[in-house]
Amino acid sequence: MRRLAALLALTAASAAAADDPAPERRAELLHLVKQDCGSCHGLTMKGGLGPSLEPATLAQKDAEQMQFVILHGRRGTAMPPWSTFLSEAEARWVVDQLKKGLPR
Amino acid sequence: MNLPVILVLKPVAIAALALGLAACATPEPRGTGDLGLVVERAAGRVMLIETSGRTALGRVEGLGDLSHAAAVFSRDGRYAYVFGRDGGLTKVDLLGARIERRVIQAGNSIGGAISQDGRIVAVANYTPGGIRLFDARTLEPLAEVPTGSKVVGIADAPGNRFVFSLFEAGEIWIVDASDPRKPLVKKIAGVGKQPYDGFITPNGRHYIAGLFGEDGLALVDMWNPEAGARRILGGYGRGEEPLPVYKMPHLRGWAVAGRYIFLPAIGRHEVLVLDSVTWTEAGRIAVHGQPVFAIAQPGARRVWVNFAFPNNGVVQVIDVADMKVVRELQPGRAVLHLEFTPRGEQAWISSRDDGAVVVVDTSNYAELARLPTASPSGIFLTSRGAMTGF
To answer: Which of A70, A87, B297, B389 is the most exposed place for a label (fewest CB within 10 A)?
Structure first.
């Protein structure tokens, strides 16, 4: 039973790794986040017309919900849906980067 | 209001060199009418330019976070006041190519304006929401007008007034700064949902705020602000679902061509044409994407338009007489801004992702120069210093 759990954990871990964008795509995504998300959230993510996306602000936010907002936007606000440009896995990767803090 | 004023004591040596003055002990006097600056947004730096020879004269470093930066000019055209995202207000000496003074005046700012008499600089802030007034000479703080809401679309108006919109509150405020230490505030409530930017017409009479939360714009007659705001172009979306907006349009810029005002629609790939005599729709022009800036070329025969992500590699030119797109340019990737020389013979265009400022001859669209620039965004020429609303 313990072995099964370990096996499952391993599979999950490798699945996550396989879902991670390739290095070139990561660079594109970081560029997109900084420059285009940055139009509203600021180049350093400190906020602008849109809220701050700094790690401290995001610490309490649910990652899945953030992923959903990135993909589908937020009605009644200026946040548009990005699902045309990002896959679910890519949106999740962006969430992880934001929570960690973007590389300067 | 105890703000740190950082006096920069060491003038940067490139100044003299850049302006070609190094050879003489006494610098040759020089005018500033053909000078300007380009914001290098990621580097916290501005590039100084001159439009006669179309060259870069040098760089001024140390302006902080310029994510969303704008500039206004002193009436003598010597100084630029640069508003940075980090709340920094920096006074740049264009002739000396150095920072004259710099203050961090708020947590998060969006832009600013300079008063009719050139003595007061107003900064519009997101955090804390409000505007702050500064002495244009010393950057000494003079007064503060808290709004409790993000300030957008600030413009100067005749009578040393400033007018701006409040994003969350849906209001337009007019601040009379005739006595800059005791500004008088007039509030116009209920102008519409989520005004995202605003501008004043070149004659200083009409202030127009674009609305994000509904189809339409709010108009205030500055000759008669008591009458409040009037809705114009209401329902221009005709009830259709708006397209996603990946970058907010900007309204400041000379979008006025004769009696017509060209405005970016929100969530529609259209430029709206507003008749400034009847204040009704005079037409709409289908364009390449979500317009960001629609700017009339001086002379007002053509209006140039750039676009939001993902259609931001294109600039379209609208002919005002025919009200249709007559030219499409691809000056580079991610075009963020464009600025005309005062008489309109050149268009300066920033391409963020090609790292270049491209100078285009407006008579034949030929490329005249391409200046390497690090992530350029806004381009600002000193001629703004002589115009209301800039």
So the answer is: A87
